[in-house]
Design a protein that fits this description.
13 strands; alpha/beta; globular; 7-stranded mixed sheet; 4-stranded antiparallel sheet; 10 helices
Length: 307
């Protein structure tokens, strides 16, 4: 889980684009009581005005992580998350410009699935997590105090200290995503790599579902595509950017519970009906799904210039 900070809540009738810096934004539609705006220049979409801290605090409660209260249900969800984490670690290791260094930081690490998988292939891992409970679980699973509690901007970390920084389903929650990426850039050693995953407005699910896309949530302040995310990474100082549609390991049961929590007309009802008619063994079977995400890898230049 990741919490947004208090800066940057907008009151202007027309928001500037925080990525490309233009004022060429237009109101696209209203979702969940908030205006969704689109930048004509880079394609970024954003909520404006942003929800205040009290509203977001109500969202990031103890039930925020989608799961099942039963031990069996929690086991199924944990297994799916580990499979997805393995895919991310594999993508990271396949990045041709990955340096030989092994110090890795994950921001918004939850209960540590990605850190465990990265540790298993030889990375020296460290994490940041705003939920004290999740951080405690992650440290217990890692067998050492490797996860610190707090948001990136409030935890003291030395510059040029990591070879890899990873964050999944985080940047869309951040009030100032460009400043966040610049901070990430400063923490990487020259030649270091960043891996990030975020919902994409270019995905087939976003195109198919339009304004009913399940990723339009109160806590998602920004919605990137390849063009806007590439622009953000370049402005933050990154080069050698690669992007591709992301895959997660899910199950019919997990997807049905997601649609029950975040309803989508017709599609959500159909999935829930299908789940009700499917035996548990089949409904819990893991499947690799390309749905809404974008996975990006980029590099801090060896001779880095100020952004």
């Amino acid at each position: 889980m990741i919490a947004a900070n208090a800066s940057g809540i907008g009151t202007s009738s027309r928001p500037p684009c925080p990525i490309c810096g233009t004022g060429d934004t237009t109101r696209a539609f209203v979702r969940n009581g908030y205006d969704v705006w689109r930048c004509r220049a880079c394609g970024l979409r954003l909520l404006w005005p942003q929800p205040d801290d009290a509203t977001l605090a109500g969202v990031y409660n103890s039930d925020y992580f989608l799961g099942d209260r039963s031990l069996e249900g929690e086991g199924h969800s944990a297994g799916l998350k580990h499979e997805t984490a393995r895919r991310y670690v594999k993508a990271l290791c396949a990045y041709p410009l990955l340096s030989g260094g092994r110090r890795l930081l994950e921001i918004g690490c939850g209960v540590g699935e990605f850190l465990i998988e990265a540790d298993a292939v030889g990375f020296v891992v460290q994490g940041l997590e705003v939920s004290p409970h999740a951080a405690a679980v992650a440290n217990q699973r890692l067998g050492a105090e490797r996860v610190h509690v707090g948001p990136l901007e409030k935890v003291a970390l030395p510059s040029d200290s990591f070879d890899v920084i990873a964050f999944s389903d985080v940047i869309e929650h951040i009030r100032d995503p460009l400043a966040f990426l610049q901070r990430v850039h400063s923490l990487l050693r020259p030649g270091g790599a960043v891996l990030l995953v975020t919902p994409s407005v270019d995905s087939w699910s976003a195109v198919l579902l339009g304004r009913h896309w399940m990723e339009y949530k109160v806590e998602h302040l920004y919605y990137f595509g390849k063009r806007s995310l590439g622009a953000a990474l370049k402005r933050a100082g990154f080069t050698e950017i690669t992007m591709r549609a992301n895959q997660k390991t899910l199950s019919l049961d997990y997807v049905a519970r997601h649609f029950a929590r975040f309803p989508v007309p017709v599609v959500g009802s159909a999935v829930c009906l299908l789940r009700a008619a499917t035996p548990d063994g089949l409904a819990h079977r893991p499947v690799n799904v390309r749905a809404s995400g974008l996975l990006a890898l980029a590099r801090k230049p060896v001779s880095s210039q100020p952004y």
